[in-house]
C-alpha cells in the first residue's frame, strides 16, 4: 500500500471530525483511495489544551512552517476557518506544491479566485466541498455531475441555525427569541448569533454556489441580505393560512443574462420540497435546463458531516494524483448583477391600519397605480387600536412595491408597514 | 480547441436527449470539458425511420462495425438498453480502447463486473450515472462524494411510474387501475406495465446501488421484490389514519455484516422527506456513518434528465482522459444476503374477520406467541359480512409474522389476510 502524509491546519470541530473519520474508516479509505493516509502534523493554537480526542502530542505544533518545510506532506487540510491567517497558509501550501482541501467558506467566497489561480500555476488541486452545506455534495454536484446543464436557478436552505429557529417558530409556535435561546442551548447558534440570523453566513455560501453554477465571479458585496429577526409569529401564522412556509432562502437566478442574488426570509408553497426541510437540515434546490428540478438534502454542519466532505475531498485528491489534473475551467465570465429594485417576486405585505371604511380601497389604488396587482388579501379582526391588512401580490418588480409602500405609509389611516416578505413559487 | 469524436449506440429517447444537450449547450460543454465534441456515428435499427430531431442522415448507420473499426472514435455512448446486443457492443468498444458511457441499468446490474474487469484490463473508463434515477447524481454521489463513509442504508423511490400511480391514489383517491391508465396516457407507464408495477425495474437499479454502496457483488436474484398491484385504496386510507404514506421503496441495509435487499410497497411516516416525493419524481435517501442522513431528489427519467447524466459522464471522461484513470476500486467483497424470514420491520396487517366477540383476542394471542407485539390497531365498522381489523406491529422478524399469519388464517372467525405491508420508520 502506498503511503501519503497529510497535515491539518486546525483541530476544532471539523478537524476532530476529520481525525475521527480517518481513524474509524481507515481500511475502507485505503481501499477507495489506494493510499494509507498518515497525519504528519496538526497545527493548533495551544498544544496543551484539553481535547475530547486522543491525539499523540508529538503530532501537534504551533509552528506552521514545520508543515510547509516538510516536503513529505502532500496535502494540507485547512479546517481553521476565518480569512487570516488561513489565506496565507493556503497560499503557502500551494506554492510548495501541496494540494489543499479546505472547509473555509469565508476564504473561498472572498479569495477563491486568487487561490485557484495560484493552484493552477502550481499544478495542485484545491478542493472545498465542505465549505458549503457540510456533508451535502453540492460543490461536486455542480462541478462534476451537472456539467451538461445550463443552470438557471439555485435556491438553498444553507444555514442550519436559522432553519432550526424558523422550524421551532413554525411547528412549535415559539417566538424568535425563544427559538434562538433553544438553538443556543443545542449548540446550533453562537452566543453572538448575528452572522447566522442576519443571513451573512448564507451570503458567503451563496457567493460560492453562484460563482460555480453561473461561472462568474460573484462578489459577496453584490448579494442582497436580509435576516430573520423581522419574522413574527403572526407572519408565520398568516403564511400558514395562505398555504406558505417561511424559510431563509439563498437564491441565485439568471434573468436575461444578469444574476439576481439574494438571501432573505421567503414564503414558499407548503408542498414544495424545500418547505419540508426542517430542524437544522440544509437543502439545495437546483434548476438546470437538462436535469430539470434537483434537490440535495442533508446535514449542513457538524463535525462528522463536514468531516465527511473534507475526507471525501482528500480521497478525491489521492485518486487524481496526476500532475495538473485540476482541470476545472476557472475562466469565469463577469455577469452583471440585478439591482434590488429590479428583483422580480411575489410579495406578502402586512400593514396595520385604522379600522375605517375605504382604507383597503386606498391601498389597492396605490398598488394598482404602481403596477402591483393583488392576488389575495385577508383583513384580520380588530384586536387593539389597529387591524391588519395582509396582501399577497402577483409577481412584480421590487421597485414597484417599494414605491407603493412609500405612498401607502403616508395614508392617514395607515399606522405602519409591519412586514414585507418575498414569496417564491419556484414554478413547482 | 481539441476535438474528440464519439459515437452513439441508439437514438431513442435518451439518445435524442444526448443529441439535443450536446447541441444546445455546446459552448458551455466545450469550456467545461476542454473538448469540441463531434458525434461521428449513430447506430440505429432503421435509417429511414421518421424522427423528431434533425440528424444528418450520413451520421446514421445500421452497422456497428463502422463504429468499432473507426479508430478516431474515443467514446462510445450506449443508450439502446437491454442486455443483448448492448453487452456485446460495450465489450467490443472496451476491447478497442474506447471509453464507454452507458445508461443501461439491466446491463450494469447483470453484467457490470465483467464489463468493469474488461475496462480495467483495457485501461478505459465505463461511466453509468444515467443507469439509476436519471438525472440524479447518485452514482457519482456514492462513488465520489461519500467515499469517507461506511454506508449503512440506502432507501430509494427509484421507479417513477409506480410513484406516479401511488401519488394519484394517495392525493386524488384514484384506484390502482385508474391511476395506471392515467400513467399510460402520460407516457409514464408502458402498455405492458409489469416491469414497473411488479418492482423489477427497481430491482435492477437497487442491484447497482447496493453493489456500489456496500462494495459487494449483488445479484439481482438475491433481491426480494413485491409490486404495488396489491395496494388498495383502503390501505392508503388506513395508512393516512395511522400517519403513514405508501411508497414503493428499494431498500438495502447492512445488518451485522449481511445485506437486507428488498423492493416493496412500504408505509413511511408522513413527515419523512421520502414521503413527500410525489408524481414521477425519484429520491434516494442514504445513511452514512459520517454524513448522517442525505437525500437526493429529482427527475428519474425523461430524455433531458437522463441525457444530463449521460453528457455529464462524457464530460467526466474527457476531463480525466489520462490513461488508466479508472481508479475506482472494484475489488468487491461478497457479503451474505439476509433471507426474507429474517427481514426486520414493522408490519401493517389488514385482516377481514367475522364480527364476533373474542376474535381480536385470538389474533393477538397468536401474534404474542410468535413474538410479534402490537403497537396499535383499528377495528373498522361493519360494511358487509366482515369487518376489518388493522394491526400495526412493533419491529419484528418477518418469519414471526408469517408464522403468525399461517395460524391466524386457520381461525374460523377469520375470512382472509387482506394485506401485509411493511413499515419503515428509518429512525427519522
From TrEMBL, chains A, B:
**E.C. numbers:** 1.1.1.3
Q: Which residues bind NADPH?
A: 105
Q: Does the keyword Transcription regulation apply?
A: no
Annotated metabolic or biological route of this protein: Amino-acid biosynthesis; L-threonine biosynthesis; L-threonine from L-aspartate: step 3/5; Amino-acid biosynthesis; L-methionine biosynthesis via de novo pathway; L-homoserine from L-aspartate: step 3/3
Q: Name one Pfam family in it.
A: Homoserine_dh
Q: Which of this chain's residues are annotated to bind NADP(+)? A: 9-16
**What reactions does this protein catalyze?**
L-homoserine + NADP(+) = L-aspartate 4-semialdehyde + NADPH + H(+)
Where L-homoserine is bound, by residue? Answer: 190
Keywords in alphabetical order: Amino-acid biosynthesis, Metal-binding, Methionine biosynthesis, NAD, NADP, Oxidoreductase, Sodium, Threonine biosynthesis
One biological process GO term for this chain? threonine biosynthetic process
Cofactor(s) listed: a metal cation
Class in the EC hierarchy, top level: oxidoreductase
Q: Does the keyword Oxidoreductase apply?
A: yes
Which GO molecular function annotation, any one, does this entry have?
Answer: homoserine dehydrogenase activity
Name the active site residues.
Answer: 205
CDD domains per the UniProt record, alphabetical: ACT_HSDH-Hom
Task: Tell me which family the UniProt entry assigns to this protein.
Answer: Belongs to the homoserine dehydrogenase family.
- Name this protein carries in UniProt: Homoserine dehydrogenase
Amino acid at each position: 500500500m502506498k503511503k501519503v502524509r497529510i497535515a491539518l491546519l486546525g483541530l476544532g470541530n471539523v478537524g476532530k471530525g476529520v481525525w475521527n473519520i480517518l481513524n474509524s474508516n481507515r481500511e475502507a479509505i485505503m481501499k477507495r483511495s489506494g493510499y494509507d493516509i498518515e497525519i504528519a502534523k496538526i497545527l493548533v493554537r495551544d498544544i496543551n489544551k484539553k481535547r475530547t480526542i486522543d491525539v499523540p502530542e508529538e503530532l501537534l505544533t504551533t509552528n506552521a512552517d514545520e508543515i510547509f518545510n516538510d516536503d513529505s506532506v502532500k496535502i494540507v487540510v485547512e479546517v481553521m476557518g476565518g480569512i487570516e491567517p488561513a489565506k496565507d497558509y493556503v497560499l503557502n501550501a500551494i506554492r510548495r506544491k501541496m494540494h489543499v482541501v479546505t472547509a473555509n467558506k469565508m476564504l473561498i467566497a472572498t479569495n477563491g479566485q486568487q487561490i485557484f489561480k495560484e493552484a493552477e500555476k502550481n499544478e495542485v488541486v484545491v478542493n472545498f466541498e465542505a465549505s458549503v452545506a457540510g456533508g451535502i455534495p453540492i460543490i461536486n454536484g455542480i462541478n462534476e455531475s451537472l456539467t451538461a446543464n445550463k443552470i438557471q436557478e439555485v435556491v438553498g436552505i444553507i444555514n442550519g441555525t436559522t432553519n432550526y429557529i424558523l422550524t421551532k417558530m413554525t411547528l412549535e409556535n415559539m417566538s424568535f427569541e425563544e427559538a434562538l435561546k433553544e438553538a443556543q442551548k443545542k449548540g446550533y447558534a453562537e452566543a453572538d448569533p448575528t452572522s447566522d440570523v442576519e443571513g451573512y453566513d448564507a451570503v458567503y455560501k451563496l457567493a460560492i454556489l453562484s460563482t460555480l453554477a453561473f461561472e462568474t465571479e460573484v462578489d459577496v458585496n453584490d448579494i442582497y441580505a436580509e435576516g430573520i429577526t423581522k419574522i413574527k409569529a403572526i407572519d408565520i401564522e398568516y403564511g400558514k393560512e395562505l398555504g406558505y412556509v417561511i424559510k431563509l432562502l439563498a437564491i441565485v437566478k439568471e434573468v436575461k443574462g444578469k444574476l439576481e442574488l439574494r438571501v432573505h426570509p421567503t414564503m414558499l408553497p407548503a408542498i414544495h420540497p424545500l418547505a419540508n426541510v426542517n430542524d437544522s437540515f440544509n437543502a439545495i434546490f437546483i434548476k438546470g435546463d437538462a436535469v430539470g428540478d434537483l434537490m440535495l438534502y442533508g446535514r449542513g454542519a457538524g463535525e462528522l458531516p463536514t468531516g465527511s466532505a473534507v475526507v471525501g475531498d482528500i480521497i478525491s485528491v489521492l485518486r487524481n494524483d496526476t500532475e495538473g489534473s485540476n482541470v476545472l475551467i476557472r475562466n469565469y465570465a463577469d455577469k452583471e448583477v440585478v439591482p434590488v429594485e429590479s428583483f422580480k417576486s411575489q410579495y406578502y405585505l402586512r400593514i396595520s391600519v385604522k379600522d375605517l371604511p375605504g382604507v383597503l380601497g386606498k391601498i389597492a389604488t396605490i398598488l394598482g397605480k404602481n403596477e402591483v396587482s393583488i392576488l389575495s388579501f385577508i383583513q384580520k379582526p380588530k384586536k387593539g387600536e389597529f387591524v391588519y391588512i395582509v396582501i399577497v401580490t402577483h409577481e412584480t418588480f421590487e421597485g414597484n412595491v417599494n414605491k407603493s409602500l412609500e405612498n401607502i405609509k403616508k395614508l392617514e389611516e395607515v399606522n405602519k408597514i409591519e412586514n414585507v416578505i418575498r414569496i417564491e413559487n419556484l414554478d413547482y
